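Subject: Interface between my chains keeps coming out wrong

I've been trying for a while to get a sensible model of this assembly. When I model each chain on its own everything looks fine, but I need the whole thing in one frame so I can look at the contacts. Pasting all components below, labels as-is. Any help appreciated, I'm running out of ideas.
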Amino acid sequence: MIEMYTQKIDGILFAIALNQQQIITASFGENQQTTINNVLGNVPFDMPFQFFHEPSAFAKKTFVTLNDIYGGKDAKNNLALATANLPAYTKKVLKATSAIPIGYVTSYGEMAKTVGGGPRAIGNIMAGNPFALIVPCHRVVKADFTLGGYGGGLKVKLELLGREKRGFSSSREIEVDGEKLRILPTEYVLRKIA
DNA sequence: TGCAAACCATAAC
DNA sequence: GTTATGGTTTGCA
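Reply #2:
Try treating it as a single job with all components included. I did that and got this:
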């Protein structure tokens, strides 16, 4: 049985689907319509599910983390994600995305260089990210530091990045699965937009 | 700047 | 199997 929960915090609605141990999908938005739809769309078609009003402990913890990330806090989350039935390449991309620390961004192209494949394939996977906020797909932008797209709307993507700036001034490299990924200060994006 | 072509894993037929 | 689809990138005028 899949458990679904919603919670409204500061005017924004978070929705999640959980099994006992893992997060199946998470979404957020300003209205029920899109938020709930997103969650439903990512729940396996043949699985029974039920909405719950009172959040379980796991659900509470998840909501707190979501709200922290949304608020630009460096929420160290070790939430268990249900990635098992996702395609291998998708898993790889989501994992690399999760490795981007707060205060930095990278581009679709850089990600492609790191995990293989092409920039557009990366974009496709970001667009379908089942774990909104938890996998920080908002930290992936275009090579010229314009925003690219965002499921939750470009305005939100920009707001998130605005809260995440940490004053870093130069690019650096991190390692994911033994491959190098080039990351750049969030400021580069903010400056470009301004 | 702006446009066209190359790019590449997925999902949908 | 094949085709269509992008949250892209690059090159060239």
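Reply #3:
Confirming on my end. The mean pLDDT of chain A is 96.
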